[in-house]
Amino acid sequence: MIIKNDILGLENQLYEAMKSSNVEILDKLLHDDLLFITPNGETITKEMDLETYRNGYLKIVDIISNIEQLNIIEDLAVITLKINLKGSFNNEPFEAQYRYIRFWKKFSGGIKVVGGSGISI
């Protein structure tokens, strides 16, 4: 069974790993079959996401999240949130607000992100 505090803790781990470009932690938090739709409409895989951090294409300086809703459905958690991101992509600075939906699922090896989507707001 998943509890809300588990997901909130994992969300914080995810943000810290994104800010520090910690590919090892991101690798543990993201399911191998992850599918995510980026704000520009591109569908990416786990490996594509990790590559942006590994190569330094995406650098996050600050993440401020505001959780809107968190639903637990048996072994699945669905979270919606607004996130203010500040950083750079391909050495181009950006600061933007996004709305995300993320799906966390419990497996024998832990709880992992299996999918999600983000839009610019």
At the first level of CATH, what is the class?
Answer: Alpha Beta
Total DSSP helices: 3
Say what the CATH topology is.
Nuclear Transport Factor 2, Chain: A
Instruction: Spell out the helices and strands N to C.
Output: HHEEHEEEE
Distance between the termini: 33 Å
CATH architecture: Roll
Question: Major sheet, described briefly?
Answer: 6 strands, mixed
Strand content: over 45%
Helix amount: 25-40%
Radius of gyration of CA atoms, rounded to a whole number: 14 Å
- Global outline: globular
Q: What count of structural domains?
A: 1
| Mean pLDDT over the full residue set | 96
Structural class: alpha+beta
Number of strands: 6
Strand order of the biggest β-sheet: 2-1-6-5-4-3
Low-pLDDT windows of residues = none
How would you portray this structure in words?
By secondary structure, the chain is α+β, with helices and mostly antiparallel strands. It has one domain (4-120): Nuclear Transport Factor 2, Chain: A, CATH 3.10.450.50. 26% of the residues lie in helices and 56% in strands. It contains three helices and six strands. The protein has helices at 4-19, 23-29, 46-54, and strands spanning 30-37, 43-45, 58-73, 76-89, 92-107, 110-120. Strands 2-1-6-5-4-3 form a six-stranded mixed β-sheet. A hairpin with a 2-residue loop joins strand 4 and strand 5 (92-107). Helix 1 (4-19) runs antiparallel to helix 2. It is globular, with a radius of gyration of 14 Å. It starts with a helix and ends with a strand. The model has no long low-confidence stretch (mean pLDDT 96).
